Amino acid sequence: MQSRLILTLLAAGGIAYACGPRQSESEAASAPAVPTRLPANAPALATTLELSVGEGVDLRLHVTNTSGKKIEMTFPTGLTHDFYIIDANGREVWRWSEGRMFTQGVQKKLVDGGATLSFANRWIGPLATGTYTAVGVLLSSSHPTEQRVEFSRE
């Protein structure tokens, strides 16, 4: 009798734990990336963010390995980079990864010395007159980097 009660309580506890609150995918995707501290001898990366504003906003993030050695970049998921735009009040008005799904497998990319990784995306959306900041982020856990460019919409 007592063993049935214990088994029932254990089963109920397991179900309660499995059904407990979780962070939604959109909350996880919109959480800011936490940069990791790199060792002083880490290979140097040069990062540039180019953008052009017209009908939409075209964003191009370039990450160049400026060392003479190959480096291995580790990405914890299929989300290797992201772009977002914030307004003058610091509110996010657009994020490229919002609503997208990415693999949950770790990825590694070898980048030769002098080679450049480039990522490009376009946002076509309502953009009122004002000042904005475009942000391009490389989401490598081994070599995280971010670049910001301010622009105006007239």
Question: N-to-C SSE series?
Answer: HHEEEEEEEEE
Strand order of the largest sheet: 5-4-8-9
Tell me, briefly, the overall form: flat
The CATH class label is Mainly Beta
The overall average pLDDT, rounded, is 81
Fraction of residues in helix:
10-25%
Q: Might you state the CATH topology name?
A: Immunoglobulin-like
**What is the tally of beta strands?**
9
Low-confidence stretches: 16-38
Major beta-sheet overview: 4 strands, antiparallel
Percent of sequence in beta strands: 35-45%
Q: What count of structural domains?
A: 1
CATH fourth-tier homologous superfamily: Intracellular proteinase inhibitor BsuPI
SS summary, helix count: 2
Structure report:
- The chain has 154 residues and is mainly beta.
- It has one domain: Intracellular proteinase inhibitor BsuPI (Immunoglobulin-like, Sandwich).
- The protein is 15% helix and 42% strand.
- The chain is built from two helices and nine strands, in the order ααβββββββββ.
- The strands form three sheets. A four-stranded antiparallel sheet has the order 5-4-8-9, with no helix packed on it. It has a three-stranded antiparallel sheet with strand order 1-2-7, with no helix packed on it.
- A hairpin with a 6-residue loop joins β8 and β9 (145-153).
- Residues 16-38 have low confidence and may be disordered.
Can I get a quick summary?
The protein is mainly beta and 154 residues long. Helices cover 15% and strands 42% of the residues. A four-stranded antiparallel β-sheet has the order 5-4-8-9, with no helix packed on it. A three-stranded antiparallel β-sheet has the order 1-2-7, with no helix packed on it.
